[in-house]
Specification:
Length: 280
């Protein structure tokens, strides 16, 4: 990563650097057209109760299908969407689409199912964010309590009054709030008390080594106990093996998500997964 240079320094551009920036510009111009050209798609991954296997919710995960470059994963385009501000419009589309799908599955299942949506910092702070969330709920007919917004610790770190206000407003509307990738940020744990969070999602980097690394096992157990004592719900991310589920169950972790249950699936396949999962 290039360090920011002082005014007196000048930067030598190597051919590799100009290639990188050309690639970036090309990606950016494609990203600008993506929404209008309907190139985005939401995949869904089930969130399951570890003790009885009941399906609780699904997390919406964004995919970008570009005719020239194929499927682009969020880690490659979300940061760019953040930098350019495109995330506001893209994120709005994501929330609308996710709410609509949640209503479809509710009808299919005959019972309510929650939907989790990732929200990035710039999208969260953009003017009218709360209004756009409320619009998505009223247009789709989804009750607020079935929508959960996933926010990373990074967002809370800014300590701003606006962040606190938006979180509070969303909470007052009945929308659920979760901390994503918990344990990877640097936040003081006191933020959990100060803000109206409902759920902690333990980052997959801890879950993945829980059987191999005693330190991670201790850490995960400690997070679970702490979260419970604060009345928070827990979701373990990145669960791939049955032994991990057993560990989590014994440690008292309510919910899990990961390839062990299912990979993220396109909406139609998720709906088929629902049918076969809930019929046995
Ligand atoms: P995240 O919210 O922490 O999502 C979980 C990621 O872990 C997803 O990657 C998911 O596919 C992956 N995953 C799930 N189960 C397993 C498992 O068992 N093993 C492993 N190794 N990985 C697993 P994905 O879909 O590539 O998304 C990456 C990140 O991009 C997300 O992390 C989230 O931060 C961001 N993202 C995705 N969709 C959106 C969106 O609509 N808006 C925003 N702002 N960010 C999004
Ligand atoms: Mg997430
Ligand atoms: Mg609440
Ligand atoms: Mg995560």
């Amino acid at each position: 990563q290039a360090k920011r240079k002082g005014k007196s320094d000048y930067v030598h551009f190597s051919p590799e650097m100009s290639e990188i920036s050309h690639e970036r510009l090309q990606l950016e111009s494609r990203l600008r057209r993506a929404l209008q050209q309907e190139e985005f798609e939401l995949f869904y991954q089930p969130i399951v109760n570890t003790s009885n296997g009941n399906l609780l919710a699904a997390e919406a995960l964004l995919r970008w299908n570009n005719p020239e470059i194929g499927q682009v994963m969020p880690d490659r385009f979300i940061p760019l969407a953040e930098e350019t501000g495109l995330i506001t419009a893209i994120g709005e589309w994501v929330i609308q689409q996710a709410c609509q799908n949640a209503v479809t599955w509710k009808n299919q299942l005959g019972r309510d199912i929650g939907i989790s949506v990732n929200v990035s910092p710039r999208q969260f702070r953009a003017a009218g964010f709360v209004t756009s969330v409320m619009n998505a709920l009223s247009t789709s007919g989804l009750a607020a309590e079935f929508l959960e917004l996933e926010i990373t610790e990074r967002l809370i770190l800014d300590n701003s009054i606006e962040t606190a206000q938006i979180l509070q407003e969303l909470d007052e509307h009945g929308v659920r709030l979760s901390v994503d990738d918990f344990g990877t940020g640097y936040s003081a744990l006191s933020f959990l008390k100060r803000f109206p969070f409902d759920t902690l999602k333990i980052d997959k980097s801890f879950v993945q080594d829980v059987l191999k690394d005693p330190d991670d096992a201790v850490l995960v157990s400690a997070i679970i106990n702490m979260a419970h004592s604060m009345g928070l719900r827990l979701i373990a991310e990145g669960v791939e093996e049955e032994e991990q589920v057993q560990f989590l169950q014994e440690a008292g972790c309510d919910c899990a998500q990961g390839y062990f249950y299912s990979r993220p699936l396109p909406a139609i396949e998720f709906s088929q997964w629902l049918d076969s999962y809930t019929s046995h």
